[in-house]
Sequence to fold (236 residues):
Amino acid sequence: MNQTVNADPAELAKFSELAMHWWDPDSDFKPLHQINPLRLEWIHGISPLNGQKVLDVGCGGGILSDSMARKGATVTGIDLATKALRVAQLHALEAQTPNISYQEIAVETLAQLQPESFDTVICMEMLEHVPDPASVVQACHDLVKPGGWVFFSTINRNAKAFALAIVGAEYILQMLPKGTHEFAKFIRPSELAHYCRSAGLVQQHSKGLQFNPLTQRYWLNEDTSVNYMIATRKPG
Fold:
């Protein structure tokens, strides 16, 4: 077993502190609620969720986990932010969400315990919050079955991303709490592609996520210069 957990205590504390607001669509998590239908449909269009066994890595309060379960997947959500995970569990009980469970466990530990156990693995908005994103990518590869899909989302590292994702979103528009993101932890698509290749995952699709602050509308397109998602597949 890994004795060193691939997590930043400050990051875990940050999201635990906000835990009670996860399911408030007008809270600091409003952007997650707004983009959830977009990323859910993108995932579902590539790897239809009905009847699948799905792992949501870094699930937080369970916004995406819950919606995937309602698409017919059997979902396991994992996170190390204790309070956020408790909120996810409570919401699942209150909403009577079928076929969903949550565990407080590191993805690397789960990969050792349950290798090749999931049809699809999702890791959204997490890689830019951990000390070693390559380790997470490798664990996601190890957890998915041969032929299964692994999805990632993160933020590009460039001047435009700094201006929009940090200065714009956190300080000017105040869409996110100040300090939500650290620019140095952002990940260029070429870097993420390298992590995936090294882990044995083959990138198949990518999408950029765009936002118009005037209309408050999000949409997907081919521009990966700021927020982006990729779909990868494990050979076999």
About this structure: The chain has a mean pLDDT of 92.
